[in-house]
Amino acid sequence: MKSIQAVSYPVLFEKKAYLELSNLIDKNNYSTIFILVDENTLAHCYPKFTPNLATQKRIEIIEIESGEINKNLETCIGVWNAITELGGDRKSLLITLGGGVITDLGGFVASCFKRGIDFVNIPTTLLSMVDASVGGKTGVDLGVLKNQIGLFANPEIVIVDTDYLETVTEREIKSGTAEIIKYGVTYDINLFNEIKDNKSLNISDLIFRSVEIKNEVVLQDPKEKNLRKILNFGHTLGHAIESFYLESENKENLTHGEAIAIGMVCECYMSSKLLGFPIEKVNEVKEVVLSIYNKTSLLKEDFSAIMELLKHDKKNINGQVNFVLLNDFEDYKLDCKVSEELIVESMEFYNV
Amino acid sequence: MKSIQAVSYPVLFEKKAYLELSNLIDKNNYSTIFILVDENTLAHCYPKFTPNLATQKRIEIIEIESGEINKNLETCIGVWNAITELGGDRKSLLITLGGGVITDLGGFVASCFKRGIDFVNIPTTLLSMVDASVGGKTGVDLGVLKNQIGLFANPEIVIVDTDYLETVTEREIKSGTAEIIKYGVTYDINLFNEIKDNKSLNISDLIFRSVEIKNEVVLQDPKEKNLRKILNFGHTLGHAIESFYLESENKENLTHGEAIAIGMVCECYMSSKLLGFPIEKVNEVKEVVLSIYNKTSLLKEDFSAIMELLKHDKKNINGQVNFVLLNDFEDYKLDCKVSEELIVESMEFYNV
Questions:
Q1: What is the ipTM for the molecules in this complex?
Q2: Which chain B residue has the Cα nearest residue A314?
Q3: pTM score, two decimals?
C-alpha cells in the first residue's frame, strides 16, 4: 500500500487503506461511528464505501446539504445536535466522506464536539484529495468570508481512493486540477508540464505527488509562518473572486478551482510587474488555464467589491493585503505588497 | 509579584500583573486589542481595568449579554462578526474581562477566529478565578448541554486581581466558594476546614491555593484521562441539576456553585454507600453547604428530567454515567458506576 506520513497520521492510498481503518476502529474501540455525507456522497460514494468498512460498531449517517453555501456554523450546529441526539460521546468517531466542504466542516465539528473526538477523512473529489488531505486546516465560512472560523486539527487517518472520482463531474475534476497546477508552478514544474502537455495523465500519480508536496510544505511550516504561504498562491485574489461570485445572486458561482485559476493568472501577472517573473511564463500559465476552464468575464464594475473582499483575507495584517508571488517557476517570494492599481490591472490582463 | 506557572503561560496575581500584560502587547505588536465584556463588567470592571492598560494600540470593546443563557454559538457568531467588522486579523489580541461565560466563550472565539488568535483571560468573579484561570477549557453550551462545544486552548497570560471581586454580588462569591470546597474535600482538606471554621477568610490566599491545586492536577493530566477527573467531583450530578434549572421556565436558575454544592452533597452520599466514605463526613459536607447556600427543594417529579440530562454528561461513554467518588477526604476513585436508584436516593438525602 502506498502511503504518506503526515505530521501525526498517515495518508493511505488504494483499497488496502480500508484495512487500516478497520484496525483503527478495533484498536480504539469507538462507541459509535458517525459518517458525515451530503446528498450526493450518500447516493454515490457511500455505496462504494460501505462494503469496505468491516466493523460491528453502531454506524449512524449524518447528512448535510451539499455546497459551499452550507459550509457555515448553522450547519455545524445541526450536525452537533444530530450527534448529540444520536448519543455521541467522547469515544465516538466521525468519518467524513465527501469533498472539501464535508472534510473541512467535519474536522471542525469533530474537533469541537465535547472538546474533540477522533475523525477520519475520506475525500471524494479531486480537490479535497490534493488539498484537504494534509495540512490540518478545518473550518467553515462566516458569511461570505471563507474559512474564517476554524482551527488546526489532525485526523487519525486519511484515505485517498480514486474510485470516488468516478462519482464526480468533469467540472469538479477540473476544479481540483487548479491545485495541481499550483503545486506545479510553485514547487515542481513537472506537474505543470504534465498538465500542459496533456499526455495521458495518470491521475493517481498526480494526486500522490501533490499530496507529497503539500505534506513536505506543511511539515516544514505547520502554522503558516513562512513556506506554507506558497500554498496560497493564486488564492489571495482567487478567494476574493470566489467569495464575490458566491454572494452575487445574479451570477453563477465559480468552483474553487475556477476562481483559483483566475487568481493564479492574475498573480503571475503581478509577479511579472513586481519581481520580473518572465512574461512568457505568465502567458504560458494563462494559456493552460484557458485551455481547461471557460473564460470568466470579470466586470469592471465588480472590481471594487472584489477589492473589498480582499481586505478580509485571513493573511492580512493591519489591513495590508499580502500576496505570495513568483520570481520564477519554483521560486516564490512571500508577503508581497501589491497596489490596488496593479491588482485591478492584473484582472484586466486576465480579461483580454 | 505572585505567580503560578501553568502549562504554557503564567497566572499572575495582583497589580504588577498588568505590567506583564503591557509587555506582552509590546512584544507581540498586536494590530488591535479587542476586549470582551458583558454589560456588568463593562460598567463595573472595565473602569478598574483600563487605567492599568498602558498601550497606544487601537482598543475595541465588544459587549455581549451576561448570563449562562447567552453562552452559546449564536453569541459566538455575533462576536466573530463584530471582530470581522472591526478589522480583526491574525495579529489581534482578545482580552476577556468577566466571569466564566466571558472567559470560556472568549477563549473559544479567539481559538477559532482565523484558526486562532492570542487571548488573555482576566476573570472577574471568584468562580472564574478559581476555576477558569487554568486548565485550557474553552467552550459554549449547546442548548441546555453545558460546554458541549469547545476545545482545549491556552491563553497567553491570566491575571487574577481580587479588586474585581468588589464588583460582584455575595451570591456570586458563594458560587465560587463551592469550587474551593471541592478542592478541599478532594485534594487539600485544609481549604475545606478553613471555610468550615469560617475564621477570618483570606480570600486571596484561598484563591491562590485553589489555582495552585488546579494547576497541579491539570499539569499531570491535561486531557482529563485520569487525575483531572477529580475536578468533576460534584459536577456530574451538579451540572445536570444546573441544566435542569436553566431550562425550567418556571424555576429560578441556580448559580453554578449552588448546583455543584448540591452535587457534592449527593456524590458524598453515593460515596458513603458505594465506597464506605464515612457518613459523619457526608454530614459535615452537607452542613457546611447548607450553612452557605439556601436549601433548594429538589422535587420528586423533576428527578426523571434530571436523570435524562445526566445521560448527556461529556464524561459518559457508551451511555454509562461515570462519577468521581471519595473513599475519604483527599482520596478519590474515578469512573464509578452508580445505579439510577442510588442517584435518586442521594437527591432524597440532600432534600431531608
A1: 0.89
A2: B114
A3: 0.90
